[in-house]
Structure formats: structure tokens, C-alpha cells
Specification:
Layout lengths: L10 E4 L3 H10 L3 E9 L1 H7 L5 E8 L6 E9 L18 E4 L3 H9 L10 E3 L3 E7 L5 E7 L4
Parallel strand pairs: 1-4, 5-8
Antiparallel strand pairs: 2-3, 3-4, 6-7, 7-8
Amino acid sequence: MRSMPIKLENVGIAVRDIDATIAFFTDLGLTVTGRDTISGDWADTAVGLDGNHAKIAVLKTPDGHGQIELFEYLHPDAIETEPTLPNEIGMHRIAFSVDNIETALERAAKHGCYPLRGVATYQDVYKLTYLRGPSGILVMLAQDLTKG
């Protein structure tokens, strides 16, 4: 059986406030590549929601390989959930490598986003932390200590 070519396009995240979430991710270094408001039969069919109406934004990492798509639902109403815990089954977290974890954490703090516990060092290879981003999104930041 031949393998089918497959490529990860993006990770989609539903958020309470798209503008605040864009501000958080652009401060970390991502760039907005597009914004729109979507609705109509095609959107209902694709997502499986009647009356699907949402503001969307696509952001990419500076290397151009990673993308996230943010959704702020206008209809149906967004459903509040408890923030995901690191050990819960399901969509877990989004991870980014950064050149300087302290600088990234300073930028995150401007948005009221702080590490869950602190910054850890893994075998002198990575400094890493999980933090709670806008809308309770779990974000992992990692600095590769082997790159000088």
C-alpha cells in the first residue's frame, strides 16, 4: 500500500477573545497571515455546526513551518470548559521552541500568562516550561541549550 502524502497545515484553537490571543502570540514572535469572519452553508458543513459564524485568524512561526488557526465563535455561543490539565486525554498543548526562554516569559507575563510551576532544565539539553495562555491554552516553551 502506497503512503498518501500528508502535511500538517495548522492547529486550531477556539478562544474567548481573538484580539487578545493574537496579541499574545504575536508578542511571542508569530505573524498574522490572514483574518476573516466565516459563515454560510460551507462553514456549517465543514465544521458540523448549524449557523457556524466565527472570527478566524491564521498565524505562522518565523520559520514558516508552524501555523495556528484561532477561532472566536459568534454563533453558536462558545462553550466554557475547565482549562485542560497536563494529564488529561485529548488535545493537550501547543509547543514552541524559543531562542531565549526568559525573554519569551517576560513577553507572556505582559499578557498575564505565567508558568504553571517554573522553568525546568532537562539534561542540560532544554530549558522548558508550561504556561497558561489566553483562554486557558496550555503553551509549552522550550529553549535548546545545545544551540549556542
